[in-house]
Structures are given as structure tokens and as C-alpha cells.
Amino acid sequence: MKINLLCFPFAGGSKYSYNTFSKIAPRHLHIVPLDYPGRGARFKESLLTEMSRIVDDAYEFVKKHAGENYALYGHSMGTVVAYLVTKRIVRDNLPKPLHLFVTGRGGPSISDDVKPARYLLSKDKFIQAIKELGGSPAEVLDDEDIMSFFEPIFRADFQALDTYEYEPSEAFDVPITVMTGADEQVSYEQVVAWQRETTRPIVARQFPGNHFFIFDHVKEIVRIIENTVATESLVAVD
Predict the structure, then answer these.
(1) How many domains are contained in the chain?
(2) CA atoms within 13 A on the CB side of 191
(3) Is 19 helix (H, G, I), strand (E, B) or coil?
(4) What superkingdom does the record give (predicted)?
(5) 81 domain residue, yes or no
(6) Which of 105, 129, 142, 191 is most exposed, with minimal Cβ within 10 Å?
(7) Distance CA 46, CA 164 (A)
(8) Which long-range contacts (CB under 8 A, 24 or more apart) does 22-29 make?
């Protein structure tokens, strides 16, 4: 049975960020990454700086796949977008995703409390903040011509994240798997906070690595997703 895995990019990312996932995934797990406006295949569109508008845009993409077997996956900023889209799906009584997979971030009820807001930092401090996250090659971050293109994208995404305010709501009946890196700044309490969002017991896994541990463990992460959605799809059929 084919299952679509709709993938939400991290800050500064695009649908091309998940090319490795597409190469490794088995044929029945179809990786369907999306682009936010202003990057990737949608680079000519205006960037969005409000989380609500990003979610509105992503929701329209997800609705096209909501009649099929599907799951949602997001990393870092993508976890917030995927979570809010899931809330919207449940609210609108659309077919729910089989599973929500989130990596690189604690529950949305836990504020990042980033001060000063990253998107307001000077250029040097802003680039340093990106470097500290890992995941972006130094030769890219140190190249002024390349960064003249990417810096506005990063700033728009961080503005959406840094100004996002959590709104408590009733937990949804969608299972959640949380995966984090041992060396990133996500505590056990922040991981457990995801339990507030679902009526199902969450599953938590930790991997060696920093915030972008996902690229060092693609095979294992894809295998976890594959095995999990295979089980969920059987339950859905029953």
C-alpha cells in the first residue's frame, strides 16, 4: 500500500532538502516535500514572515493529499508547521494523517524564548546563529553572494518562528513520534511536552548528533517512519 509522507522544511530549507530521503525511501513510501513561498521551486513568490500565513499555504498543499494514506513529517521549523496543519485538518474534519513525525524540536507549548529575536540580529550575529545550529556549510554562510540570496529566506523563517505564539487546544487523535539529537538544545521535558498535543502515547527517540542529526541518520529515520506508518495503515484498514 502506497503511503505519502508530506515533508515540511526547516528554516532556510526547501523541498530539495529532502532529496536524500527520497533516494533512500522504499517505493511504497512516497516522499512528498513541499516548498514554502520564496524558495526552491517557488523562489519567485514573496516570502512569508507570519506562521499563520505559512500554515495557510501549507494547508492548501496538504488538502490535495488528504484523501490518500498519508503521514506528516517536519524538522525544526517544519515541526511547528506540520503540527499546526494537523490541528487545522482535525478542526475541518478532513481525513487525518496516519502519523505525525517531528524532529529537532520540543513540543510547541514550550517557548524557544530566543532573545533578542534572531531575525533582528545584525548580519554577523545572524550568520553566527545559523552556524551554531549546524547543517549549513561554512563555505555557503561565508560567501556574500550566496548569502545575499539566502539571508532574507532565513530571516523570514526566523521571524515566523520567533513571533509564533502557542495557542492551547484539545489534544488530537493522531499519534506522534519525536526524534531529537543528543547534542542539540532539546531537553527531556521539552520532548515530553509533545504529549499535551495528542491523545496517544508519544514515541521518543534520540540519536547522536546536533540539530541536523537527521542527515547523519537518514536510513534509520526512514526505516522508523516506514515501519510505523505500515503498522498504522493496517490499523486504519481494520
Answers:
(1) 1
(2) 20
(3) helix
(4) Bacteria
(5) yes
(6) 142
(7) 19
(8) 24/218, 24/219, 24/222, 25/222, 25/226, 26/226, 28/1, 28/2, 28/3, 29/2, 29/3, 29/5, 29/222, 29/225, 29/226, 29/229
